[in-house]
Predict the structure.
Amino acid sequence: MLWQDFLIPYLGIIVGSIFALFVLGHMLRQRRPPASTVAWLLAIILIPYVGIPLYILLGGRKIRRLARRKKKLLLGGFEEIPLEKTALADRFLRSYGLPGATANNHIEFHNNGQTSYQALIDLIDRAEVSIHIAIFIFAADPVGQDLLERLEKKAKQGIDVRLLLDSFGCRLLPSRLLRPLRSAGGRVAYFMPMFWKSLRSHLKFPGNAHLRNHRKLVVVDGTEVWAGGANLAQEYIGPRRSAKRWKDLTFIIRGEAAKVYQEIFRLDWNFASSEQMDKTLPAHRLVTGGTETIQVVPSGPDIPDDPFYSAVLTACHTANHRLWVVTPYFIPDEPLLQAMSIAIHRGVDVRVVVPLKSNHLVADIARGSFLRDLQQAGGTVLLHRGKMMHAKALIFDQNLAVVGSANMDARSLFFNYEVVSFLYSPQAIAAVDSYIISLLRHCRVGVRQAGRFREFGAGLIRLIAPLL
């Protein structure tokens, strides 16, 4: 028995070393930011029994096969504006293989939950061919139940109704509430199903718990889309005014850009469901677009490289007059924080609007050191009073605005499936400008110096942030 006492530990070391090399090889192929790579290397080498399981759970960042396929399928098929007429950001994003900007669009914004809800209801009522929804949170509250009843009614009329739910975000939505929709002919799929849902469904495989579909879009007839930062729950939208409702920003786009949202939904659906969608929709009603120039930009594990993050980083370096950021969670990586700080020293008006208190205490603690660094460099930090401010918007000078689902934190920039719209037309940019100015009236200027305990917590979270 004595030889076994020596052999088993050695075999454990050999097997563990081989497994660690496999994990290290996978990590190095992920093309992570340098700080993240170094942090994971140290965790795997110094504390392998903790670092390796954590990496398996949290470390994956790109799905290479899906990214190659999506890059190929997103190319072409849209009426893009000529390359010689494009803006700098448009040309930059096209170089990554993303669809270019289209000119024949109309966009209208909703700056409160009632307006957003009514616009969504009207959009669903107009549907003649299809209603395709991808959402992070679909709540089992009065708003969610009302929407399910409307979708069921449309499905009974023969309209193609598909509901793509993020498995983690919709984990509290009871399956029984979806049965009437399914019985009426509607289809439901879970994106990146958690293990227990994959066992109970017809889905392909359990998903990575770290890679969530944070995209929020409702595409009707392939020609109109409701999108933005809001989920389908009463704290975001509803038929009546509510003192508990969060501050958010949504919009409807009619025109060519809606087709890009439709294609993003189709590819996400085909990834998550065994029921595949064809690329060509049935003949649909004609919708008059407009004159707005819009570029739809998806990001996440299914997109090669990180074009959205790179475009934001480039815009920070090239902004000449202003750089305004509205986000519920502000936890940038070091290169992005440095780019914003450099912009401040170049004389750019850098403002960051965040909620005075968000719905995540850890995020509030983590953002502190980043906000204080920007403030010390000369930037303006504005804390929005009142209920949770969940809107996401960026403005660079007078020629670019960005709206959609992405927050300014590492999770949205590098891990989540997201989609945003780059707006290039003066009228659309002015609308985002007016929205941000309306927020500023309810803001407290400046972030206070933190106490030792909070500063320690912020520093600790900042240290481990590259691991996430």
